[in-house]
Design a protein that fits this description.
The chain is an alpha/beta fold and about 240 residues long. It contains seven helices and eleven strands. The protein has helices at about 20-25, 65-75, 95-100, 120-125, 145-155, 165-170, 205-220; strands at about 1-5, 30-35, 50, 60, 80-90, 105-110, 130-135, 190, 195, 230-235, 235-240. Helix 3 (about 95-100) links the parallel strand 5 (about 80-90) and strand 6. The structure holds ligand JEE. The ligand N#Cc1c(-c2ccc3ccn(Cc4ccc(CN5CCOCC5)cc4)c3c2)n[nH]c1N binds near residues 85, 141 and 146.
């Protein structure tokens, strides 16, 4: 997968060179290219913003640099999905991450200030698959954090990326749609807190049942919205009503 990120803060994307995305790049699974939007300006001050039509606080990102950047970056290679982080976007989800992971190329348009001139998105929609995405109901100062979040969530789903693909199926918001169960490691007792006995039983069926019950319990308590409406939570044991 090729991922292009266009931003006025290229250094913001440095963490993508670390940890898992970094390994993906070394393994050739991820071709990450970060671009400075100001490379597509032509004035002495490398201007990317201007005052908003209609008045209001703050500044808006000018369309011209974005148009030139998208033209240049899409002149070669696969047609990208253009991902535009925005507070007004579609909520990012594991399902959307899986959809994006199936694409050959993503191009993140990271805005700042009060956002990007709407005509940039409108014009992009005439040429590419555009996804306006929000990573949550809170306000950030720009799209770079979202690009980091979406890239990590997508890259870890790429075939051959995770050492143990089985771990992907057990995850929260994964196939089961439940939150993850509690995990433990050595020592068996720590500050008078013991690891649950079932995990020492060697009985894999019992352990699996205990883990499922813990996941159901946790989901019912913290994220009941993730439980299917047909599910009946009885003593925190979820049974789907036939
Ligand atoms: N993903 C994601 C995000 C973002 C995000 C993503 C991209 C950009 C680019 C600029 N900003 C700053 C910004 C803040 C607030 C507002 C709202 N406006 C309403 C009308 O009055 C003016 C203000 C707009 C732009 C961004 C924020 N925030 N939260 C998420 N989950």
């Amino acid at each position: 997968m090729r991922v292009d990120v266009v931003t006025i803060f290229p250094e913001y994307l440095a963490p993508l060179g670390l940890s898992l995305p970094g390994k993906a790049r070394e393994a050739g699974l991820l071709d990450l290219r970060v671009h400075d939007l100001r490379d597509w300006t032509h004035d002495r001050h490398r201007t990317v913003d201007d005052t908003p039509y209609g008045g209001g606080a703050g500044m808006v990102m000018k369309p011209e640099p974005w148009g030139e950047a998208l033209d240049a970056l899409t002149a070669e290679g696969d047609a990208p999905v253009v991902v535009v982080p925005t507070p007004s976007g579609e909520p990012f989800s594991q399902a959307l991450a899986a959809d994006l992971a199936s694409k050959p190329r993503l191009l993140f348009a990271c805005g700042r200030y009060e956002g990007i001139d709407q005509r940039v998105v409108d014009h992009a929609r005439t040429r590419w698959d555009v996804r306006e995405v929000s990573i949550g109901d809170y306000v950030l100062n720009g799209g770079e954090v979202a690009a980091l979040v979406v890239t990590e969530a997508v890259v870890r789903l790429l075939p051959g990326f995770m050492g143990n693909p089985e771990s992907l199926t057990e995850e929260s918001h994964g196939a089961a749609g439940l939150l993850e169960y509690p995990v433990y490691t050595k020592p068996p007792s720590w500050r008078d807190l013991d690891v649950p006995d079932v995990l020492f039983s060697g009985n894999h069926a019992r352990i699996a049942a205990w883990r499922h019950d813990q996941a159901v319990r946790r989901t019912a308590e913290r994220r009941p919205d993730l439980l299917h409406p047909s599910a009946v939570v009885d003593d925190l044991e979820v049974r789907t009503v036939q």
